[in-house]
TrEMBL record:
Species this protein is from: Neopusillimonas maritima
Keywords attached to this entry: DNA-binding, Transcription, Transcription regulation
Domain of life per record: Bacteria
InterPro entries membership: HTH-type_LysR_regulators (IPR050950), LysR_HTH_N (IPR000847), LysR_subst-bd (IPR005119), WH-like_DNA-bd_sf (IPR036388), WH_DNA-bd_sf (IPR036390)
Family: Belongs to the LysR transcriptional regulatory family.
Name the record gives this protein: HTH lysR-type domain-containing protein
PANTHER family: HTH-TYPE TRANSCRIPTIONAL REGULATOR YBHD, NITROGEN ASSIMILATION TRANSCRIPTIONAL ACTIVATOR-RELATED
Residue ranges constituting the HTH lysR-type domain according to the UniProt record: 16-73
């Protein structure tokens, strides 16, 4: 089916329909025509017809079918990337239209990490709810290596967490809000919880909870142990899930490394104790990241204002 075809903006406007591109993107996201038909509430033959129409428009095969579903061809991969960008722009348009017609509404999709998930982001979401109660906030947890590409594709509006020190990609705009340090924490029941002084030998005898090796925080964790002149533990659980870490700390005698301002929240709630070691070791700057060249929706702009307000309280 491949052929030499010439395209222009006008020819694409005449040939293509938004629904066709939306269906194609959903088929690839779902991995099969059947799954996409269920999600879109369309018949499978109707979806097959739309894919065939797109292939005729472009003169290219878009999908390869197998027992495990469908896979995009090289041309299909290229088209999928443009479809994702287009779908993200349509979502921003919908947010603007909703905000224009209803005053304060829309949706914000936020990626977050441990450093912001306990205090900064919850505080900002509460403040946003006061200003714009009709805004829907969707929070996704992950690491920068996963979330930054999603931000670039428009699947996330903003990433809130530790600002990467070694990331110089011009596609992203990093906005630091406050400096953070590291600390070692345990559950209140831990034998070391009430200790005023602790030796390295005592620390080495326990299991630890550390950030995953691919997370931005791993560099600071290495510095933490170097500063204490302590070998990095080998009996570890790697996790950036705040709920998993809290569950392990409360129900076991493990030690975790945690951003100090995050730990302070759970100390105040009576769940954790901060050990008297390494509390002044730098962790980095907590803030948010946007995709360069993309205008934030009105709902996202309100969330960013809330982040700044809450950060000023945390750092004061």
């Amino acid at each position: 089916m491949a052929s030499m075809m010439s395209f222009s903006n006008q020819s694409l406007v005449r040939r293509l329909k938004l629904q066709q591109l939306a269906v194609f993107e959903r088929v690839l996201s779902c991995g099969s025509l059947l799954a996409a038909s269920r999600e879109l509430h369309m018949t499978q033959p109707a979806i097959t017809k739309i894919i065939q129409e797109l292939e005729e428009h472009f003169g290219q095969i878009l999908l390869v079918r197998s027992r495990r579903g469908v896979q995009p061809t090289d041309f299909g991969l290229m088209l999928r990337n443009h479809c994702r960008t287009l779908m993200a722009d349509l979502r921003y348009l919908a947010d603007d239209l909703n905000s224009w017609s209803a005053g304060v509404s829309g949706q914000v999709v936020v990626g977050t990490l441990l450093a912001a998930s306990a205090q900064l982001l919850p505080g900002a979401v509460r403040r946003l709810r006061e200003m714009a109660p009709n805004v829907v906030v969707q929070v996704r947890v992950g690491v920068n290596d996963k979330m930054f590409p999603e931000l670039a594709r428009g699947e996330l509006d903003v990433v809130v967490g530790l600002i990467p020190l070694h990331e110089k990609n011009p596609d992203y705009e990093h906005v630091p809000l406050y400096a953070e340090t590291l600390c070692a924490v345990v559950g209140r029941q831990h034998p070391l919880a009430a200790s005023r002084t602790i030796s390295v030998a005592q620390l080495e005898s326990w299991d630890w909870i550390l950030p995953t090796s691919e997370s931005e925080a791993s560099h600071s964790v290495d510095h933490f142990f170097e500063t204490l002149k302590m070998r990095k533990p080998t009996r570890i659980v790697e996790s950036v899930s705040i709920m998993t870490n809290l569950g392990l700390l409360v129900d076991s005698d493990m030690i975790a490394i945690m951003p100090y301002k995050v730990a302070a929240k759970f100390v105040h709630l009576g769940l954790l104790s901060v050990l008297p070691v390494g509390q002044d070791i730098p962790f980095g700057y907590v803030g948010y990241t946007l995709a360069n060249g993309r205008t934030a929706s009105p709902a996202t702009q309100r969330l960013l204002l809330s982040l700044h307000d809450v950060a000023s309280q945390i750092s004061s």
